[in-house]
Amino acid sequence: MSPTAASAVLIPGPAGDIDTLVDLPRGEVRGIALVGHPHPLFGGANTNKVAQTLARTFVQLGYAALRPNFRGVGKSAGSHDHGQGESDDMLAVLAWARGQFDPAGTLPVYLGGFSFGAYVQAKVAARLKAAGTPARRLVLVGTASGHVEGARHYETDAVAPDTIVIHGSADETVPLANVFAWAEPLELPVVVVPGADHFFHRRLHILKDIIVQAWKD
Considering the domain 7-214, what is its CATH architecture? Predict the structure, then answer.
């Protein structure tokens, strides 16, 4: 299903405006997908190529895909909040999307994230589950977990066993061993792309193929 051109909107959030790109399928909207971008203090934004690939893949599957800029990025208000405020903002974007595309509240919700964005989406999934409105499925790429480049540390939330977790074997930012250490106690499979670095240079098409081939809704 081909997408329309992405539109930029400012969505009201807890800390002010949330600068968001919205991609829509040309046909019926069959679900709502939220996409999280990499770390905002290291150049991450909603225009990141991996985040864009996730959004385009969700649109191909028939979903409205929303890519908010995290706090302090682009026109988004506020400042970096280490995943807490960013999770609040994701839920605000979801509430806005419900009003736009799903006033009856019946469409499934999907979460996708890359790097820090994957860490945030694991938090969002936990909050949606606790509220009794779980996401249908997650796609996490280059998931920030454990000690990573830049002396940062992430305690990544547990996720559902059908989560699609994709990581590069040559990831120089988040070592593959970190993701294995997080996934093993969860009995969570990890799809490893041989030779892929953190940003999946020259391998973005592989990301899309993995997701589409593994998809069920």
Answer: 3-Layer(aba) Sandwich (3.40)
